[in-house]
Recover the amino acids of this structure.
């Protein structure tokens, strides 16, 4: 059951990272798009779109011989996005600002460009781990409930920690990159766990 | 069981509503949850004053004397006009960021009817409130644009003599209107020798105050500070160019403006309060940037920076 605890911890951290990234996203958008209701609406809906696409894709991927190694790789993808974030975020935002697609469309397009893919990959984690635990560790349906709860609980902690504290500790770009590092760190044990199952 | 629960719930609501009640002399004229804030227009029938508030019993965001709506009720609105004494010419193009009850632009437009006055206000519901309850009227020379202040400044192609930043509320400061990048964008919209004035509500020295001082000093060559006597307001006046303004010169000009424009505020007295920002030097205070600006947390943190 040790391996199960590691998976739980990973799901918790991924849940925290998603919401921390969303809070920081509002800061990324404000210089070019303000903090109008359109900015908040764009930001939240794009994160939800990313997560829902991620849940769907994650479920499909979980049916193709899931393994802890593959999960590690999929967690490293948003890690790469986060580490490179300062390189592309300002140029993309500036470009969309210059194009001026209006007060609604501008922040929506910017949110899609900056946040959709990382949110999608983080959304994959929950369904993928659920299948992996059930088929390789032979756990029961209880596992799924626990994963949902931990993921959402992680999101709560990520939201509070970021908005109440982290924002006064370091700059937005530094915080996003630190989360990239964190994702790489939690991906490491997945390569040594050797959890997998064959689905016929 | 259900009924007991409902009765208990009713009591809780009644208690909550009671705790929100206004002073005996206060009357609620209007309330609305807009996209951005709770707006309450409250009239004090004993003092004959009318306020707009973001919480029923919070500090007012703006207000008027009911019997003399053309006067400036709040000290910070009076203080702000000291910025006129820093201009080397008559203001022709002026920008207000933040409308509130519209007291400051209304007053300015009355005494400078020839100047072009732009106002950027994020909340579409504030405009009819200012119009209906605070006698604010747009006219050919004075126009409100409903837009985030930062976006208005970034998109503007106009140059201004004077920019008045008054978009910080007591309980919420939009961080993107505090950063050195924003102030530089404002500076790029100023004519040569233009002036920026900002209303800062803060206790004297906490992390927010220190950082605001250092950020303004980073973005502008000269900063002058005026302290409210009746309120915890500070007025920052920053100039884009030119030499340091001497105290005597500012006072003399303030007196001239006061009589030439028939201002019913004691501008000369306000000018005499000028403090040079050389006295405000906290090198360890953090400069606010788009990347790092925890303004709403800083408001509750004690200053650690020393001179």
């Amino acid at each position: 059951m040790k391996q199960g605890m590691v998976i739980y911890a990973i799901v918790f951290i991924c849940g925290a990272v998603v919401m921390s990234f969303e809070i920081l996203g509002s800061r990324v958008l404000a210089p070019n798009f303000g903090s109008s209701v359109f900015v908040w609406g764009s930001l939240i809906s794009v994160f939800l779109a990313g997560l829902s696409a991620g849940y769907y894709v994650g479920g499909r991927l979980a049916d193709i011989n899931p393994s802890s190694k593959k999960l590690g790789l999929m967690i490293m993808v948003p890690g790469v996005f986060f580490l490179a974030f300062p390189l592309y975020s300002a140029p993309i935002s500036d470009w969309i600002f210059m194009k001026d697609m209006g007060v609604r469309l501008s922040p929506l397009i910017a949110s899609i460009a900056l946040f959709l893919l990382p949110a999608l990959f983080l959304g994959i984690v929950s369904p993928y781990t659920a299948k992996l635990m059930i088929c390789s560790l032979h756990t029961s349906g209880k596992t799924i409930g626990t994963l949902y709860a931990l993921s959402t609980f992680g999101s709560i902690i990520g939201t509070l920690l970021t908005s109440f504290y982290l924002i006064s500790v370091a700059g937005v770009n530094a915080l996003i990159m630190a989360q990239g590092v964190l994702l790489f760190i939690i991906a490491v044990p997945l390569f040594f766990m050797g959890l997998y199952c064959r689905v016929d | 069981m259900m009924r007991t629960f409902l009765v208990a719930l009713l009591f809780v609501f009644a208690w909550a509503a009671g705790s929100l009640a206004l002073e005996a002399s206060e009357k609620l004229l209007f309330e609305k949850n807009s996209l951005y804030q709770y707006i309450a227009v409250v009239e004090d029938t004993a003092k004959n004053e009318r306020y707009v508030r973001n919480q029923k019993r919070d500090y007012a965001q703006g207000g008027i004397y009911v019997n003399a709506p053309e006067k400036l009720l709040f000290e910070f609105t009076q203080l702000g006009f000291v910025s006129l004494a820093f201009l080397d010419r008559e203001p022709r193009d002026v920008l207000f960021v933040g409308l509130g009850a519209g007291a400051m632009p209304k007053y300015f437009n009355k005494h400078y009817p020839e100047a072009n006055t732009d106002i950027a206000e994020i909340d579409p519901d504030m405009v009819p409130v200012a119009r209906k309850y605070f006698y604010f009227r747009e006219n050919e020379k004075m126009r409100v644009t409903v837009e985030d202040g930062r976006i208005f400044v970034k998109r503007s192609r106009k140059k201004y003599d004077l920019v008045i930043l008054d978009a910080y509320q007591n309980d919420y400061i939009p961080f993107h209107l505090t950063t050195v990048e924003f102030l530089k964008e404002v500076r790029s919209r100023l004519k040569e020798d233009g002036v920026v004035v900002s209303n800062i509500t803060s206790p004297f020295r906490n992390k927010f105050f220190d950082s605001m001082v250092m950020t303004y000093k980073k973005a502008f060559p000269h900063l002058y500070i005026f302290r409210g006597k009746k309120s915890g307001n500070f007025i920052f006046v920053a100039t884009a160019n030119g030499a340091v303004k001497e105290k005597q010169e500012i006072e003399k000009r303030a007196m001239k403006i006061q009589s030439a424009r028939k201002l019913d505020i004691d501008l000369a007295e306000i000018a005499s309060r000028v403090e040079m920002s050389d006295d405000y030097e906290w090198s360890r205070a953090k400069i606010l940037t788009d990347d790092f600006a925890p303004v709403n947390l800083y408001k509750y943190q004690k200053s650690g920076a020393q001179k």
Summary: Chain A touches chain B through 21 residues (CB under 8 Å). Helices of chain A lie at 2-33, 37-62, 68-99, 102-136, 142-164, 172-193.
